[in-house]
Amino acid sequence: MLRGELADAVVSGGKTVVDLGEVEFCDSTGLGVLLAALKQARGNNGDLELAAPRPAVRRILQITGLDEVFTIHESVDTFVATATGVAT
């Protein structure tokens, strides 16, 4: 389900954000889905960015080195401000 939603979101290019604020855990399957969507987004001249990861998810991203692959924002509002150049 998530794989399909992300594929639809990134197909047209541009920046897409995934709000991780309610995600308490992410395993290798979830990371794989995010990476596949990132690859698809970049293939369409876009990007996939992450927002508001909880500490456990942020730690998983750090351990796997994915914090160096994805742009990670403290909140969705921070993403919007960065993407639009307008402070919220």
UniProtKB/TrEMBL annotation:
Belongs to the anti-sigma-factor antagonist family. SUPFAM superfamilies: SpoIIaa-like. Gene3D superfamilies: STAS domain (3.30.750.24). This is Anti-sigma factor antagonist. Residues 1-83 form the STAS domain. CDD domains: STAS_anti-anti-sigma_factors. One of its GO terms (molecular function) is anti-sigma factor antagonist activity.
